[in-house]
Design a protein that fits this description.
By secondary structure, the chain is α+β, with helices and mostly antiparallel strands. Helices cover about 35% and strands about 25% of the residues. Bound molecules: oxa(dethia)-CoA. The site of oxa(dethia)-CoA has 20 residues, from helix 3, helix 7, helix 8 and strand 14.
Length: about 350
Amino acid sequence: MTAPSSVPSSTAARSHGAPAVTGARFSRITGTGSYLPPRRLTNHDMVAMLAARGIETSDEWIVERTGIRARHFADDGVNASDLALPAARDALESAGRKPSDVDLIIVATSTPDMVFPSTASILQHKLGVHGCAAFDLQAVCSGFVYALTVADAMVRAGSARCALVVGAEVFSRILDFNDRTTCVLFGDGAGAVVVEASSSPGILAADLHADGRHLGILCTPGTVAGGQVSGTPLLKMDGPAVFKLAVGVLESAARAVLEKAGRTEADLDWLIPHQANIRIMQGTARKLKLPLEKLVATVDEHGNTSAASVPLALDVAVKSGRLRRGDTVMLEGVGGGFTWGAVLFDY
Ligand code: UT7
């Protein structure tokens, strides 16, 4: 997906506060933000929690197989929108924008507050603004990369001028704490970016995919029917099958998005893949012949936060001063669906 040269603004986009952008229309990330719930559980805490259920795990196993050392869990009653709100405010502040400047909100989540309304509508209300478009996007761990691609397309088409794109998850709610093969892997959190219309390119290209044939290898097969939950609303994953697919698609998406943008691996300053497993992330970097210093890894402290993992890692890289204006960045998502994709941008 490459940017068109010129697209007129819609009336809806013009009705909001941010200044008009004339000439060629592109989209650019103008601010980043994130939020982690305060309750931090180390691997040792998980070992103790599972031991109380008669289930054995170890810090060594978790670190060796995944790189995870800790994760954050939201307290009971804290929902995805409660994590999204501080992350969104943080991103808006870093972009120098107010909630009233926003004319589009997309929340990528697989753990929404309710069946409906959308977590995006709830977030809009909590931000104290009303009227702009707001919807959720569900592509599991690829959700943020999907949502950013949609926001980029809407901004370039003139349907929005200042978009808030959030990944927010409370995966602790859908974990089976009797299944050691999954419950030690995931955490809660939220990350956000502000995407604005720009006369110069920021987001350069995107590449999205899904293959429903693999839907069974990573799923939460429950639903609501007749006032009851039917099925099993707990996460199930065939880890080795996901691992094998992830390694292949992360490389192919990376190469595809570089080709679409007319760039090469050598142009990359930062690779920010979905934070699920350090072995998958480092393997992807090696295949792209990137030095590991160019890999942003937060999986050690966050665990796998699904749709929140990429914007959380992006914000950590920005706030730490490592990722600077002008850097070329590749974001990559992979997960349930089976879904995957990449977005390339100049920050
Ligand atoms: O978010 C979407 C994307 N998700 C991913 O990318 C996850 C992809 N998958 C993975 O990261 C890895 O497959 C896992 C981390 C989930 C598992 O690592 P693995 O190296 O593939 O291990 P395995 O599933 O093949 O299990 C190896 C052994 C098994 O024991 P046996 O059968 O060899 O005796 C498991 O029972 O490790 C055992 N095991 C554990 N041992 C201690 C599995 N979970 C645990 C545990 N603690 N928590």
